[in-house]
Automatic annotation (TrEMBL):
Keyword Phosphoprotein: no
Entry protein name: Cyclin G1
Pfam families assigned: Cyclin_N (PF00134)
Domain Cyclin-like per the UniProt entry, residue ranges: 55-141
Keyword S-adenosyl-L-methionine on entry: no
Record function comment: Essential for the control of the cell cycle at the G2/M (mitosis) transition.
Keyword set, alphabetical order: Cyclin
Family: Belongs to the cyclin family.
InterPro entries referenced in this protein's UniProt entry, alphabetically: Cyclin (IPR039361), Cyclin-like_dom (IPR013763), Cyclin-like_sf (IPR036915), Cyclin_N (IPR006671)
The encoding gene: ccng1
Domain of life of the organism encoding this protein: Eukaryota
């Protein structure tokens, strides 16, 4: 957990704690490339199937009202597992739900953790609780029981807090953490970001959002703070520009698709859809 405010560790200490272990929790690049190069023939895992599963998990996150931390951790677990274990597409829903359940138990209060059979029922899957328990054990063993990963969300919150401390009251209104976290969720739905270091993705999101603002007197101050942070992280200009452009494309694509997004995961008969009919289809949140 990122702690800010009085009593928090200095930024440099928190940053070092995350960056020192960041590489150990990265998905295996060779495994991700194998998924990326696979043809969508129903026999092997593909990037499209992974993206669909992540969108399903985002829908579940919304349905249960779970935190951004839970969703981000679930995607970290899923990508790490998929990069080291070849699975058949028919097993993906069980793998995804197990990663989600592990994240829920790790990040949510115990009183808010649903029963496994309720998760299966809500997600309308056909496997059993026993199937989930077996798969969860396999996942944990393959990931060496390392759950608490330094996710892009943790970096984003730390960076945002650090930047805000350097700004005046008016400039602080420019970078909304809620909006940034919503944008990160959209990025998690795109396979391309699985291959990018969490710290770089978080930095790119902040730079993209700062670039989108059209208030020079405030955005200049933010840009200066971001430049200092970039230097502290030793991120090359070319890498940052590349990922920032990927973020922009992802968010543009997501904005086009978001009206119908939620209805992908659940059929019209699902109780979640009934709730949305009353509340209205949510934007990214």
């Amino acid at each position: 957990m990122i702690v800010t405010g009085p009593g928090a560790l200095p930024f440099a200490v928190q940053l070092k704690a995350l960056t020192d272990v960041e590489g150990r929790y990265q998905p295996k690049l060779s495994g991700l490339r194998l998924i990326e190069s696979s043809q969508d023939n129903g026999l092997r895992m593909t990037s499209r199937l992974r993206e669909l599963e992540v969108k399903d998990l985002l829908s579940l996150t919304r349905f249960f009202g779970f935190s951004s931390e839970t969703f981000s951790l679930a995607i970290s677990l899923l990508d790490r597992f998929l990069s080291v274990m070849k699975i058949q597409p028919k097993h993906l829903s069980c793998v995804g739900l197990c990663c989600f359940y592990i994240a829920v138990k790790s990040a949510e209060e115990e009183k808010n953790v649903p029963l496994a059979n309720d998760l299966i029922r809500i997600s309308q899957n056909r496997f059993t609780v026993s199937d989930m328990m077996r798969m969860e054990k396999i996942i944990m063993e393959k990931l060496y029981w390392k759950v608490k990963a330094p996710t892009a969300l943790r970096f984003l919150r730390l960076f945002h807090s650090h930047i805000q401390e350097q700004l005046d009251a008016e400039s602080k209104q420019i970078l909304s953490l809620e909006r940034l976290e919503a944008q990160l969720k959209a990025c998690h739905c795109s396979f391309v970001f699985s291959k990018i270091k969490p710290s770089l993705l978080a930095m790119a999101l902040l730079c993209f959002e700062a670039q989108e603002q059209h208030e020079p007197e405030h955005s200049d101050k933010i840009s200066e703070a971001l430049k200092r942070l970039q230097q502290q992280l030793n991120i090359r200009d070319g890498d940052l520009v590349c990922v920032r452009e990927l973020v922009g494309k992802c968010l543009a694509d997501y904005a086009t698709d978001r009206k119908s997004f939620f209805f992908h995961a659940f059929p019209s008969s699902h109780p979640a859809i009934s709730i949305l009919a009353i509340q209205g289809t949510p934007h990214i949140k």
